[in-house]
Amino acid sequence: MTDFLETTRTLPDGVYVPTVAFFKENDDIDLEATQRHAIHLAEAGVSGLVVHGSNGEAVHLSREERSLVIKTTRAALDQSDHHLMPLIAGCGAQSTRETIQLCRDAASAGASHAIILPPAYYGGILNTSKIVQHFYDVADASPIPVVIYNYPGACSGLDLSSDTILQIAKHSNVHGVKLTCGNTGKLARIVDGAKPGFFVAGGSADFILQGLVVGGHGTIAGTANLVPRACVRVCELFQAGELKEARRLQAILAKADWVAIQTGFAGVKAALQHLEGYGGEPRKPCGLPSGEQMDMITNGFDEVMALERSLV
Question: Is the dihedral of CA 74, 75, 78, 80 positive or negative?
Fold first, then answer.
């Protein structure tokens, strides 16, 4: 475990997949599907996996279940000869104390990094200095490196500025940021102002190329659960200087991602179930789309799935 953590503290460039959570009919964690999906994504050439993100139903999981998913995913990666693949675990909570505990749990279970949303439930009395101090306190205590997660939609509209993120990034144990805010200007400012080796990623498949153009290092994109190869290919084309083809693929991804954005993680799970034969139900009170929404999902993913299969 020590060698694994030491060799993966700096996140490599590329595509990271925030995996969905899998449940059996009795609502227990589906360990077999969890392992199967992790191996499928690793074999598709992604750079790392993220568990307990917004797609991973972290808010529906107990502390014990969180550790179980991390252990199961890490074991699947190790058994399929992906020992050094980073495994990032969502560890955000509303108190500094619980966030630190989740970071320690994640490290013990085999995660290489912790990704953390800012606390926002009591946002009215949390000014910027308190949020920065929260990240500093967590980073001081966390046994694994921290990645900042900026997602206003999950934080009552709280949107960390580039100035705030750069201030947090000065901590030696803060190693990256995921920007689900979609602000590529902010992404460019962070890339320019952060320390060497600081990983800056967009948080959606609809702006992979745009992020790379301004210096970003990759993406952490939920749609990559379905089309990991297509996302990886955009990065490869950019690195090879083949921008015309990269733009063509990015447009296909953006159209599919718009469907995913409208239907959320449940739409991604529904598409997985329909197209790949596994995915299952979310935990209640959430449910799978039906009727017209399901038609929109299947039709909306047709083009990108054809692209994905062409890359196998």
Answer: negative
Predicted confidence (pLDDT) at residue 4 exceeds the cutoff of 70:
no
What H or E segment, with its residue span, contains residue 176? strand 174-179
Residue 230's nearest CA partner among 91, 67, 102, 46 is 46
Give the pLDDT confidence score for residue 7 in this predicted structure. 46
For residue 178, indicate whether it is catalytic.
Answer: yes
Helix (H) / strand (E) element for 143: namely: none
Residues shown for the chain: 312
Mean pLDDT of 15-32: 96
| Contacting residues for 85 by C-beta, under 8 A, at least 6 apart | 8, 42, 47, 48, 49, 77
Are 68 and 29 in contact by the 8 Å Cβ rule? The answer is yes
Task: Give whole-number Cα distances, 269 to 34, 72, 74, 272, in Å.
Answer: 13, 19, 21, 5
Residue 127 to residue 301: CA distance in whole angstroms = 41
Q: What pLDDT is stored for residue 226 in this prediction?
A: 96
Question: Which distant-in-sequence residues (6+ apart) come within 8 Å of 28 by Cβ?
Answer: none
- Reported pTM: 0.94
Backbone angles phi, psi at 237, to 5 degrees: -65, -40
**Sign of torsion over alpha carbons 94, 257, 74, 194:** negative
Closest by CA position to 98, among listed 81, 114, 75, 113: 114
The 10s digit of each residue's pLDDT in 175-199 is 999 999 999 999 999 999 999 999 9
- In degrees and rounded to multiples of 5, residue 10 shows phi and psi of -90, 125
Element (H, E) at 51: strand 48-51
Q: What are the pLDDT digits (tens) for 273-287? A: 988 889 989 999 999
Residue with tokens 């991804």: 253
Determine which one of 71, 170, 178, 284 is catalytic.
Answer: 178
H helix runs in 95-227, sequence order: 96-109, 128-141, 162-169, 184-193, 208-213
